[in-house]
Amino acid sequence: MAKPKKSRKYTIDGEKYVFNFDASGNLEGITSPKGRNGQLRQNPIDPNSSLYETLSTSDEAISAYNIANYGGNKEAYQDSVTKTEGLPEEQFFDKNKSKFANEDSIEQETNALENVAPKENASVKGKTESMAYPLDLNFKQDHFKITKFNYVRPSVNQSKSQRDVEKKKDVITRQDARHGKTYEEANIAGDGVINSSKPLGSIFLPMPKATDVNGVEWGKSELTISGLAALGGANMLTAGGKFLARSEEEMQNDKAAREQLVKRREIDGSGATEMGSALYTQAMSKLAGSVFGVQLDVDTVLARQGGRVLNPNAEMLFQGPVIRDFAFSFLMIARSQKEGDEIRKIIRFLKLGMAPKFRTTTYLKSPDVFTLEYKNGKGKDDLLRTVNQFNPGGLALTTMNVDYAPNGYWSAYRDSQPVILKMDLNFTELRPIYEGDQAGTPEDSVGY
């Protein structure tokens, strides 16, 4: 089966044009090569314009048509061009116009990075990369952006919340200097291992299924009356919690609560008696066990003698934050050889980024890390506020699963590029989300 063809560049009225023919040899579109920063892109000409009509009937178009259809057989040459009238021309224009706009947007994103990858990094050489799937991805619609960074640790502890700090002013006026106002309040959006690193490249993908799960660790804690007594002693040794970094307000609140508890015990009159009984039973259980060589716990003794057990005073206590995981799945169909090349570049880019870096037989260097963003391309602050944001401290790509035959059987083009593949990515945030992070998000957003 014949393939679509494109002509060489023809110069008409000082501009260069390329004539594109379908598999049947009919003219389906005209493009104008536009070069910028060493990149050549095909800007399609509107088939409904007067320029298109002029170009399609020109001697250059007839020459390109004859070469595409008859090659060196000049006896078969025609004196006019056969066009794919109507819808095919419109489809060619719409497809290539969207592609041209998309490639231009990618270049703008790349130029905005204004970085050069470090020489020691094998992921990207030279200028930072920007890749997109599909190639005609509309940047004005909601989309997903993955940016890669070197893992850099400015300090030992990188797990801090978004917070206000004093920062030296960039511009200090004489009046500021006279009044000692050389510092200003600045918001630090959480520490991370990407803050002092430069972007190594970006990937733009369609909007995935967006979900987030926020959680904290709470665990069951039990403490009998003897444990409570020991805890009271510990409280005295730490000056009511002063040596445990507790604030004055917290200690005053606890003191008031204890005073109320003492008053209730004075009314009840049984607190001290029951505590003494429990401690006596505990001591006797241990003594009896050692004398007769058996193990007796207090609850066994109390249950068998009077149908009672020690109150475990069970509570759920906060035990720590939870670090969030995110899973994404992308079904990628190669609609052209160029799009197949782009898909392979994306997969390789991610695999290089998640791989640990060998240094010596003693040491390994951390893999690259990533930032994730849901964007809509509608201005400078184009992060979506209707779905979650991701931790500014960065994320690690922990697992990547690529299924090259998701339909259960191998299907590929002539160059062995899979017709369809499925890419599953699992990211884990590098630090927890704190209250300060959530409070720092816009009020009209859903937060992290």
Give me the count of strands.
18
The average pLDDT is 77
Low-confidence stretches: 112-126, 266-270
Q: Which sequence of SSEs, written as H and E, runs from N to C? A: EEEEEHHHEEEHEEEHHHHEEHEEEEEH
**Helical proportion, percent range:** 25-40%
Oligomer: single chain
SS content category: alpha+beta
Number of individual domains: 3
Our measurement of the CA-to-CA distance between the termini, rounded to an integer number of angstroms, reads 53 Å
How would you characterize the largest beta sheet? 5 strands, antiparallel
Helix segment count? 10
The rounded Rg comes to: 35 Å
Strand content: 15-25%
Q: What characteristic shape results from the CA principal axes?
A: elongated
Question: What does the model show?
Answer:
Helix content is 31%, strand content 25%. The protein is of the alpha+beta class. It is built from 10 helices and 18 strands. The protein starts with a strand and ends in a 9-residue tail after the last helix. It is elongated, with a radius of gyration of 35 Å. A hairpin with a 2-residue loop joins β2 (10-12) and β3 (15-21). The longest helix has 27 residues, at 87-113. Residues 112-126 and 266-270 have low confidence and may be disordered. Strands 1, 2, 3, 4 and 5 form a 5-stranded antiparallel beta sheet that branches. Strands 6-10-7-16 form a 4-stranded mixed beta sheet, with helices on both faces. The protein has a 3-stranded antiparallel beta sheet with strand order 13-18-17, with helices on one face. It folds into 3 domains: 5-108, no CATH class; 119-160 and 190-213 and 323-439, no CATH class; 223-313, no CATH class.
